[in-house]
């Protein structure tokens, strides 16, 4: 034994990879003292994987996957078996009724799930469903739409169909073609605009409902706060050209 330990002068521990006969996805590393008895090694591994010490056999493999030895003497120190950093310690579980057998530790679909009927659940107190019902009773407004039917209606009072307008962002100019509520859109007031240029998204029909007529890709439905009405004539496409 002394000769074997002398093969690692100045190094009294080793870093080993771990694998398990029943747990195919089990992958870990452990650093162990070379003076640690095999029995103590098994105790440490039991805490990692759940295999009992009495049902555990250990095999040592080198970094090429070749078997080096069986750690079959619990009284021997780990260093007796000449492990090196990177070697693999394979745990074999001999107990057919072990917690590691059957695959349920890795595949949760094999675990029997707790189920409860809707009737039994409704009879329970302190459930999330009862909590939601209580909150809804105390504050019914919390579940009402935040946007009312008259949303931005005050901004439409000075806007009428036929007004010239400018729409932000982008300072797009056009003419107002619709003012009011749009059933196919969110609650509140909307303004339909026919742009002077093809900067829109449709021809006045939105989600199957027609609100106005205009050439394709010239129409837009926007909120009133994005629209300014006034003296916004069509732009001359040559007005910014150099003279």
TrEMBL record:
It is found in: Cytoplasm. GO terms for cellular component: cytosol; microtubule plus-end; nucleus. InterPro entries: CAP-Gly_dom_sf, CAP-Gly_domain, TBCB_Ubl, Ubiquitin-like_dom, Ubiquitin-like_domsf. It comes from Rhodamnia argentea. PROSITE patterns: CAP_GLY_2. Its main location: cytoplasm. This is Tubulin-folding cofactor B-like. Keywords: Chaperone, Cytoplasm. Belongs to the TBCB family. GO terms for biological process: cytoplasmic microtubule organization; post-chaperonin tubulin folding pathway; tubulin complex assembly. Residues 181-223 form the CAP-Gly domain.
